[in-house]
């Protein structure tokens, strides 16, 4: 089977959580013997739709840079029984805000706040990462074929490291240093300062390195600005034996 996997960027360009998951999906498919072609969304053209008509499977990760005309072509072809595509949803790209939590009950007040509705409705499936992720999607596009995976994906190397992790708590409170404003490092620091909690800013250039660092800390403080579809790092902190100080209403993994 041939698969075309479309995304705005891949992990070798930006190693974000969504990009890592996309790469792991591609790796898993290749290990099963499938041929996977990675295509940047800005480079995807009509040949993608034609390939699908010839039996090629299409998986779409992040798609902000995809040509709107291609989205329309894929959706229209799908409605006519032609090409089929799956959307692997990472961070609420169906909303202009990219964040359901800015709306009452996670529901956009009007259709003007919703993006690519037809594109989502015509997908064979839209893969969500948690129960609250699926619920938020259905509140805004009720008839979409949403599937709750109830998980994220980690590499075999990471899982082996987690299974063999040595947890020795010698430090107190950790906050992960991040330039991403949605991770809200500032709020976590303000919380610790208000509560008189001493904390360290931690970082690592690899998930396994971060896991080993978290294993040294008693607790991890994280107050996201947006509704996290899952939040891999919270799972990793729990694997490392950390107490989590957070707002669970904004964590899909909760």
Explain briefly what this protein structure is.
The chain is an alpha/beta fold and 254 residues long. The chain has nine helices and ten strands.
Number of helices: 9
Instruction: Please report which band the strand proportion falls in: under 5%, 5-15%, 15-25%, 25-35%, 35-45% or over 45%.
Output: 15-25%
The global form is globular
* Terminal residue distance: 36 Å
One letter per element, helices H and strands E, the order comes to EHEHEHEHEHEHEHEHEHE
Q: How big is the Rg?
A: 20 Å
How many strands appear in the DSSP assignment?
A: 10
Q: Main sheet: which strands, in order across? A: 2-1-3-4-5-6
What level of helicity do the residues show?
Answer: 25-40%
Describe what you observe in this structure:
With 254 residues, this protein is α/β, with parallel strands linked by helices. It is 33% helix and 18% strand. It is built from 9 helices and 10 strands. The chain has helices at 17-31, 46-53, 68-79, 117-121, 131-140, 156-163, 185-195, 207-214, 232-239; strands spanning 2-7, 35-40, 57-60, 85-88, 125-128, 146-148, 171-176, 199-202, 217-221, 243-245. It starts with a strand and ends in a 9-residue tail after the last strand. 37% of the residues are buried. The model has no long low-confidence stretch (mean pLDDT 94).
């Amino acid at each position: 089977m041939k698969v075309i996997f479309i995304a705005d960027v891949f992990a070798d360009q930006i190693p974000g959580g969504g990009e890592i998951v996309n790469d792991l999906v591609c790796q898993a498919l290749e290990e099963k013997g499938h041929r996977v072609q990675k295509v940047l969304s800005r480079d995807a053209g009509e040949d993608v739709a034609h390939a699908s008509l010839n039996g090629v499977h299409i998986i779409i990760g992040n798609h902000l840079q995809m040509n709107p005309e291609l989205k329309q072509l894929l959706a229209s072809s799908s409605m006519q029984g032609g090409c089929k595509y799956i959307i692997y949803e990472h961070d609420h790209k169906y909303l202009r805000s990219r964040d359901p939590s800015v709306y009452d009950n996670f529901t956009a007040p009007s259709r003007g706040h919703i993006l690519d509705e037809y594109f989502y409705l015509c997908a064979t499936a839209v893969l969500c990462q948690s129960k609250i992720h699926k619920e938020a999607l259905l509140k805004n596009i009720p008839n979409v074929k949403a599937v709750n995976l109830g998980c994220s994906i980690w590499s075999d190397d990471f899982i082996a490291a987690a299974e063999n992790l040595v947890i020795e708590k010698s430090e107190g409170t950790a906050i992960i240093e991040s330039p991403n404003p949605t991770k809200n490092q500032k709020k976590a620091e303000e919380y610790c300062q208000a509560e008189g909690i001493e904390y360290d800013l931690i970082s690592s250039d690899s998930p396994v390195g971060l896991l080993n660092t978290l294993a040294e800390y008693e607790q991890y403080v994280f107050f996201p600005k947006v509704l996290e579809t899952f939040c891999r790092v919270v799972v990793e902190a729990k694997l490392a034996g950390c107490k989590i100080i957070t707002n669970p209403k904004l964590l899909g993994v909760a």
